[in-house]
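User: Some background: our group keeps a shared notebook of sequences we're curious about, and every so often someone picks one and asks for a predicted structure to add to the entry. Today it's my turn. The entry only has the sequence so far, pasted here. Could you supply the structure so I can complete it?
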Amino acid sequence: MDRFKIVTDSTADLPQAYYDQHRIGCINLSYIIDGVIYGQGKELDIEDFYAEMRKGKMPTTSQVNPDEAKAKFEEYYKENKNILYLAFSSGLSGTYSSGVIAAEEMRNEHPDINIIVIDTLCASMGEGLIVNKAVKMRAQGKSMEEIAAWVELNKLKVVHALTVDDLNHLHRGGRVSKAAAVIGTMVAMKPQLHVDNDGKLAVIGKTRGRKKSLDYLVDYMEEKNALRGADDEVYIIHGDSIADAEYVREQIKARLGIQNFLIHFAGNVIGAHTGPGIIGTFFMGDSR
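Assistant: Of course. Here's the predicted structure to add to the notebook entry:
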């Protein structure tokens, strides 16, 4: 048995095989389409999810509440009394706060539990990158407390760079105005976004046309001085747009010499807010 259980959220957008291989606990956020709640035992295949969005469906999402978080902690407590929960950014969801409340209730009811809850201030595979660092450190024999300290010290070096294909989804989430969405769509403007030091999604630029928006992601990686250690990894998400993700990967290889990549779908919760066509890169840099 592992010395402690690492737990994260479905918003980390890691492949299911990764969770299984490394015995990672996962707390699912919900998403709703046509009044049907998914994510809590009922799932929609990711390709079908994006196909529904392309047909005009507009999913909504809901954060994990304290009772849901506690139920998962109870489940993992039976497996391991030591739990490290790496939570979705508090700047984007109340899920972290729910985890804090649930953890305190668990401490009151189970005095032998050792549970640490961390606000990663990360989203999607930025959160996933933090999880992977924790997994590697656990394999190296680091304690739960040592890993928690490393995460707190380094989480604001996890760079998120994203571009979306359709501004209307960002408008629906309050990220851009209706006027900006309409005008931007008419002139093929593609916003560039990142997750800032408060863990919030912020627009940092705009380009005209899809190819330039993808090239910008690589420019941004150069600007942020992506670390180039032997085990460097770059994570790339896509909203059912694998060819564009592979294009970005090849540009990074050619320009920065990085060879280790994980490409995966933007999950249902992240995709509900960004729409089909999102491309995002996540890596360790000097700063956000």
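Suggested note for the entry: Residues 179-187 have pLDDT under 50 and may be disordered. The longest helix spans residues 124-139.
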